[in-house]
Structures are given as C-alpha cells and as structure tokens.
Amino acid sequence: MKRPTVALLLALLVTPPVLAKGTLAAKKSAIPAPVSTLKEAAPGIRYAYVETYDLARLRGILTTGLRAFLTGSPYPAEELVDKLKDVPQVPVRIYRVEYDSMIPEQGNKPVLGTGLVAIPVTPTKTLPIVSYQHGTVFGREEVPSMLANSYETMASVAVFASQGFVVTGADYFGLGGSTQAPNSYGVPGSTEQACLDMLKAARAVMKAEGLTPSQLFVNGWSQGGYNTLRFLKRLEMAGEPVTAASTASAPTDVHLWIGRLLTNPQPGDAIWLVGCASNLMMAADSYSAPGFAASVIRPEYMDSARRFYTFQMSWPEYAKTLPATLQDYFKPEFLASFRYGTNPFWEKLDASENYRWAVQTPLRNYYGEADEAIPVDIALMPSRVAKLLGTGTTAVSAGPKADHRATYLYSLTELPAWYRSFMK
Fold it and tell me: Phi then psi for 50, rounded to 5 degrees?
C-alpha cells in the first residue's frame, strides 16, 4: 500500500482529540474563570469554588455541545443526543484544586499538581467518585481544572456529576496550573502520581465540604484510557478498592501503537497522531533521557518539535512544518531500531504496557470500529489477555461508525447504569 503523505493527510485534517473549533469549549475564553480565595482542605491541598453549572447548561453540553464536538464524524450525532439530552438531574458545583506532589522520574522532586472536583448539588452526603483521566491535549489550558476549555471533561461532568457522582480529574504535570514541570505527556510514573494525589485531594475537598466518599470508579478516554489502566494497576497494588473501571479508545500498547504508525500507516490515520508521537519523545527527553529527542528527530524539525511541546506553537502551525512523510521526520537509524527493539526507547515503551496483568476490578474497554487514532487490534488487547488469564475485562464495540470521539460519547450512554449495577 502506498504510504500516505502528511500533505495528503492535511487535506483530510481532523482536529486534535479534545478541543475542536466550533465546540462550546472553543468559544469560551482561554482565561480561566475567576475563583474565590483558595482554602486549605488538608495539608498540601488547596481548593476554590469556581461556579455552578445549572441544568440548562449541563443539558446544552449534551446537545448543542455534543453536535459541535462530533462535527465531521461518521457517527450520527442525534443518536447520542437522544440518549443523553435528558440525563442531567441536578446542578453541579465546580471546584479548582491544587495539591503538592512529586516527580518520581526526578528523585521525587516537588511539583504542584492541579485538577477538578465537581460535586452534585444534592442533599445526599455520601457520594461515589468517578476519577476521570482526560485525553491528549495540545494546549496547556485544555484541562479539567479549566473546565470550559475541555469539552470531554464537561461531558463527564454533565453525565456523571449531574447524576450524583463526584467527578474528579487531574490536569497532569505540566498542564493547567502545574507550570513548574514540563508537559508529562506519556510519562508513566509522573502521570500515576498526579492521579493518585488528585484522588487524595478530591477526598480531602469532599471532607472539607461535609461529604463522605463511597465507591470509587475510574474512567478515561484516549491517552486518559491508557492512564486509567496504569492508575488502576497502582490502586490495586496499593490495596485500594476500585468498584469498576472503564476506558474508551485506549492506546493500551503504546510501543505497538507507534510502531504501526511508523511502519504501516493507513489512509484514515489522524494527522494529529504525529503530534502525539512527537510530544511523547520530547517528554521522555525532559523527564528521564536528556538528549533523546535530538537523537531520533531529524535536526531540521527539532526546533518546531520543541516549540510545539512547550506550547509556543499551535497544532495547525506545527502541522505545517512536518515533512512529506513520517519516515522523513525521524532519523533512519531510529526507524530501523524498531524492527528489533534495539533502541532503549522501545524497551521502555514495551515495559510501559498496561494490560498484561491479571486485573481484579471489573473493567470495560470501549472501542470504535472507525477510530482514526486507535486500531481495533490495539483496543482489544486487554480483553484478549483477560480471556487468557480468566479475568473480568470486557471489550465493548461502539459500532462500525464510531470514530475516536464518538466512541467516548457512546461509552457515556452506558457507563452510569453499569456503575450503578455495582452499588445495589
């Protein structure tokens, strides 16, 4: 098959997976909403009330916002609107949180983490938690703590928090208000730490607001699906009870995911996957392997790769700098090293897989048969391993027309009821 060129893919350009032109999020100012003075919820944990999302706003997220989010998708938006438009039941109070954490890859260097806690307005004082891990973003402020900039997180708030779940989500280090560290894109230890400490912070905020946490559910989309599986493993290893877990369009094996992109690109591949791969290598360079990016990316593209990674260049600007083929972006020796995994980078990526273990928590992995970012074979790996090991992981197809975004929204039509089935 003839390899697609970047120029061809640009002609079929799809926007990065989280913030799209024309969505409610895109129409909001990038300036965060004003907050009241931060209060201490517990030592090292501070929070502030931002605003309340009323029912009209929550329903708008799942109607007008959903239609905009699915612009260009082969999935019929109205099918999802019909299932979600009447879901919100109560208003939701939005809180921005900051917490003290550390960077495992750098000797537990102190770092500030930030994130979201969304609390339903209900007389019930004991509430379950949904820890949501967000997907790839190409803007520092497209994160849960700056909710109006993150449609995917707004959708989770509209679906889960408006039905009685507390929704929490870490921005990840280097995003949101966490400006002391570089973008931690795909950095396993730091991502796990951000999620663990965000969960601790959310529970402290709930206590400060007179609430008691009950069951814990973990969920994530795209990069956040990968992060959710790593987070789940850490929680199980620590003996932390998780009632149920779920992912949508998760790149469960990043080693094979990038390898397929390099060696067997397909005409339907999303062009923004190049940005994902580029940021992954820049993050490895920043967190644990100085000089790595320059050793694999051709020198003529290093400046733009660095500027994109540090949010000095937008995705559309970066896309214009890409060469005719992906093979021309990387050095030949790096491309050749994938075949036998001889570069330490491939060894680390292989070690970062998150599905070759005996998951104890009930787990659903949603996948789309028209997903432009995650091949079906990658998405099915956890369920295939689970079948081999006899564990409770189930793959759920969102259908033949479900692309990357539709897969996530489809999962939201089913997950609240599935979670509640464990609460009876």
Answer: -105, -60
Place of tokens 């199980």: 236
Cα dihedral: 108, 49, 134, 400 (round 10): 170
Structure tokens that stand for 149 in this block:
């900039």
Query: Residue 272, Cβ neighbours under 10 Å: how many?
Result: 22
The residue with tokens 């999620």 is 195
Strand 212-221's sheet: what is its strand order?
A: 39-42, 45-53, 92-103, 109-120, 166-170, 126-133, 212-221, 244-248, 363-367, 393-397
Per-residue pLDDT tens over the stretch 119-133: 999 999 999 999 999
Residues shown for the chain? 424
Q: Is residue 395 within 8 Å of residue 249, measured between CB atoms?
A: no
Q: How would you label 370-390 residue by residue, b for 16+ Cβ within 10 Å and e otherwise?
A: bbbbbbeebbbbbbebbeeee
With b for 16 or more beta-carbon neighbours within 10 A and e for fewer, the 307-319 pattern comes to ebbeeebebeebb
Q: What is the mean pLDDT of residues 130-145?
A: 98
Whole-number Å distance between alpha carbons of 68 and 196: 33
Name the DSSP class of 264: S
Band of the pLDDT at 328, cuts 50, 70, 90?
Answer: confident
Predicted TM-score (pTM) of this structure: 0.91
| CA nearest neighbour of 364 among 416, 424, 423 | 416
Measured distance CA(243)–CA(235) in Å, rounded: 11
Maximum CA extent, the chain = 62
What are the distances in angstroms from CA 361 to CA 25, 357, 365, 392?
33, 12, 12, 7
Per-residue pLDDT, 32: 54
**Structure tokens that stand for 170 in this block:** 């870490």
Q: CA–CA separation, 54 vs 121, rounded Å?
A: 10
Residue whose C-alpha is closest to residue 119's, from 151, 99, 101, 96: 96
- 3-state helix, strand and coil shares in percent for the chain, rounded to the nearest 5: 45, 20, 40
